Prior knowledge:
Elements: E1 5-7, H1 9-15, E2 22-28, E3 34-41, H2 42-52, E4 58-61
Parallel strand pairs: 1-4
Antiparallel strand pairs: 2-3, 2-4
Amino acid sequence: MTRPTFDTRDYERSWGRTPRGRGSWAFATETDDWILSPSLTYTEAKRWAREQRPEADHFTVGS
């Protein structure tokens, strides 16, 4: 199984920087199914998103 990709272009366009730090993160899957993480670091939130949607191959990071 390949690791899913995380597209941060929308986030970077909105915030002017790459995602980092602690917060509640939004991720969309290929089906535009948005999930909101609890307060986690960005790295922890990516792991959390993969656990929530193990079938997803691509996530978009929301702003």
